[in-house]
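Quick illustration, no need to memorize.
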Amino acid sequence: MDRDEDRSDDGSPVTGMRIPPGVETHGDYHVVDRGDHETSWGRFTHVEIHRVDDSPTHDWYDLFELKNELFGEDRAALEVYPPAERLVDDTNSYHLWVLEADAELPFGIHDADSTNRGTVIPGRRPDPEDVPDR
């Protein structure tokens, strides 16, 4: 991805990244499909996302809407924060791993997520109905 000077529709110079083949632009973001990966949790599609203006802005709702637009509202996605020794930080890119539509994660954040029923999460205040009488 070489930096190059391009011209906007009105002829004024625009400095940024020349879009290579395989990269789609969606609003303020470039999206690169990094392929599918088979795991014990199911198949994931890995996408790399970065802003067109190369800024380090990370808006959760923007990525949520991109996930919905590209893959559908019925699919879950993960963003990973690796151990420090495995950090790759050469661009302001963000990575999502999107599950297939019928796949479920083995954890969740809502009481309706069956995998979390009956578990205790450190630091989380339990529901009073779940606390046994003493």
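Residues 1-8, 11-17 have pLDDT under 50 and may be disordered.
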